[in-house]
Amino acid sequence: MKLLLLFVSLLISTVSFAQKQAETIVTTDIDNFWIAYDQIIKSTDSAEKYKLLEQHFISKGSPGLKAMMTARRYTSKSYIDAIERYPLYWKSIRKSMFRAKRYSKEISANVAKLKLLYPYLKPAKVYFTVGAFRSGGTTLDSLVLIGSEIAMADNNVNTTELESSMPGLAKYLKTNPVSSLVFTNVHEYVHTQQKTTLAQNLLGQCILEGVAEFVAEKATGIPSKLPALNIGKENKKRVEEVFKSTMFNESNGFWLYSDLENEFGVRDLGYYVGYAICESFYEKSQDKSAAIRKMIEIDCNNQNDLIHFADESGYFENSVSELAKKYEDSRPTVMAISEIADQNVMESSVKQITIKFSEEMDKSRRNFE
């Protein structure tokens, strides 16, 4: 009887949360964008186009739109350029974008599932914004920001205009992203619960993304469709070998958010690494609820916590603590400064100094003349 009452209580709580969540999903930016779009394409006056964009779209923008513009550095010019360069694409995605409201209930229901998995879930608003092809989904503080022009692409989109300027994006848009819309929203919702969305090194950033991907999968019961997950699993040992040599770098390289060529032939392989670390940690944990909580609440900018978590997962064959020490020991050091004879004195007439490092610097990482 007690178990039945508990189940009923949880069910009522979940339904109530889902209903409240539906009220925090905002789609007005899509409506405003298309009102502006229809006026802009009729005009031949450049100045008037900017005025129409401001009048009908930007000035009426939701807090989510303003956050997306900040997060992805969109300007009025970004939008006007996108509208003028890709008319076939905009025409082909219009109907799909107007379906955003239909997804609200499904998104809310799956966020409610996330709350069951992680009872400490803090409320966040979901905004269906419109951008200029720089993000299908991101977060800023407690806001989930969906780039509808990417995330709502379906099998009917015409990508021919994008294939020369943005081949990687064009390829992605052909994968029917809207079929993963609910999953994407839950993934981004997880990010709003994390201590940061920007880590100091590659390992931290991969774990941030891996947590969101893994937890979204557990909460929704929807398998991730990221191609990187399958490729990563098929090449586990080689991926680990290559990753270990760069895991403490500040640069993401080809591992995240990039179409850079790599030997594995797939982008975003860092999602796989982070996901695999979380999966291994989860499987080793006896208390699954505590494992989920630890994943979400880990501070990926606390190097001790980060390394301890990676070691606990058992994903890497080598100790991450030892790898971190080797990395620190291998970093170049300053051997001498030529213009300083006495280490505490420099002549005031010196205009230029020559610093000698223990090894040659990588010129591709800095501006060298």
Could you characterize the architecture of this molecule?
By secondary structure, the chain is an alpha/beta fold. The protein contains 17 helices and six strands. It folds into two domains: 1-193, no CATH class; 198-332, no CATH class. The chain has helices spanning 2-22, 28-40, 46-58, 63-71, 76-85, 87-97, 104-117, 148-151, 167-173, 181-193, 202-220, 227-234, 236-244, 269-284, 288-297, 303-313, 320-330; strands at 25-26, 125-129, 137-140, 143-147, 334-337, 355-357. The strands form two sheets. A four-stranded mixed β-sheet has the order 1-2-4-3, with helices on both faces. Strand 3 (137-140) and strand 4 form a beta hairpin. The protein is globular and about 70 Å long. Residues 5-11 have low confidence and may be disordered.
- Biggest sheet character: 4 strands, mixed
> Based on helices, strands and strand pairing, what is the structural class?
alpha/beta
Distance between the termini: 77 Å
Q: Secondary-structure element order, as H and E?
A: HEHHHHHHEEEHHHHHHHHHHEE
The total number of structural domains is 2
- From the spread of the alpha carbons, the general shape counts as globular
Helix and strand arrangement:
Elements: H1 2-22, E1 25-26, H2 28-40, H3 46-58, H4 63-71, H5 76-85, H6 87-97, H7 104-117, E2 125-129, E3 137-140, E4 143-147, H8 148-151, H9 167-173, H10 181-193, H11 202-220, H12 227-234, H13 236-244, H14 269-284, H15 288-297, H16 303-313, H17 320-330, E5 334-337, E6 355-357
Parallel strand pairs: 1-2, 2-4
Antiparallel strand pairs: 3-4, 5-6
Helix pairs in contact: 1-7, 2-3, 3-5, 7-10, 7-11, 10-11, 11-14, 12-14, 14-15, 14-16
